[in-house]
Amino acid sequence: MEYSRIEKILASAFVLFLLLASINFLSELNNAIERPDFRDYESKYVSKELLENRSRLLVMFKHFRNLHEEAKTNLTKANELYIFKREEYRVALESGNAAEEIKNEYLRAKEEYEKAYLAFQVIERAYVDIEKQLNSVNQQIDQLREKAYQEYRNAYSAYRAKVLALKLIFVIPIFLASFLIFRRYKNIYAVSLIAYSSLLFAYLIVQAVWNTFQVIGLSLFGAVATVLALYYIRKEYFKLEKVYKRRIGQNRCYICGFPIKDDYLVCPNCEAKLREKCEKCGEMKPVHLEFCPYCGTSLAE
């Protein structure tokens, strides 16, 4: 049955609107079941006291890191001044001009350097100790969070399975009903329902594959779909009978594709038989045709 262009457009719009509504409904089903929250599992394994201890150590670590940098800077400056005054005092001694003021400046620089060095050592020991404690607590929290994540992942897999089951309960009856309707009413409306239910089912499959395997799964799904499509095209478009008819229509040998003329009986390239006598009218007709072009006799008769 032929349909007008406007009917086809309206049928396409019908499919599109149904798909949009159904996909929106499928999205709403994600909230029909309570989604697991990782924070609930984290609080089950990681205690509040442990997190507070880490926060306290983190504040202390930042404070002592600043003190460590400051003490390191002060030590560097004190060391440079001490070396300069020591060399100045040594040169004065060698030249015999070692005034008391130069000696006192050297001794003060040495004393300041020793104080800066002791202060740096104290702060560095405290800084390293705080860092070790913080690393130990972080490692403990990471181990506990890994346990929490494993339990959360199992719960989330169960959640996705339940949601998928709900979606299948919605999609499969529509898919089956559309085929039953199509078997009974082979019109444009039944075809539209088939297209809608098939696209909806394909969308659900692709979404499930993506949620489960993501890029790898989608790649495998695409590869399988491509192989099936190539097989179908190969089967339908490159069947020997269709290849033969296509080559005959292009005035080429149906076996090797060599250019031929209408009155050739045998291919000059591969010696394949090109024409045969019609059993009804006796005319020499091309081989592999469904009907004789001269009398219309079916080859199947």
How does this model look, in words?
The chain has 301 residues and is mostly helical. It has a domain at 33-184. It contains 6 helices and 2 strands, in the order ααααααββ. The chain has helices at residues 5-28, 38-45, 48-95, 100-184, 188-237, 240-249, and strands at 275-277, 284-286. The chain has a two-stranded antiparallel ribbon with strand order 1-2. A hairpin with a 6-residue loop joins β1 (275-277) and β2 (284-286). α1 crosses α5 (188-237). The radius of gyration is 43 Å and the shape is elongated. It starts with a helix and ends in a 15-residue tail after the last strand. The relative contact order is 0.08. Residues 99-147 form a coiled coil. Keywords: Coiled coil, Membrane, Transmembrane, Transmembrane helix. Residues 253-296 form the DZANK-type domain. Pfam families: DZR.
The percent range for strand residues is under 5%
Helix content: over 70%
**Please, what is the average pLDDT?**
84
Order of helices and strands: HHHHHHEE
Task: Compute the separation of the termini in Å.
Answer: 28 Å
Indicate the low-confidence ranges by residue numbers. Answer: none
* Shape by Cα distribution: elongated
Radius of gyration: 43 Å
Number of strands: 2
For the largest beta-sheet, the strand count, sense and barrel status come to:
2 strands, antiparallel
Keywords: Coiled coil, Membrane, Transmembrane, Transmembrane helix
Protein name: DZANK-type domain-containing protein
Transmembrane segments: 163-181, 188-206, 212-233
Coiled coil: 99-147
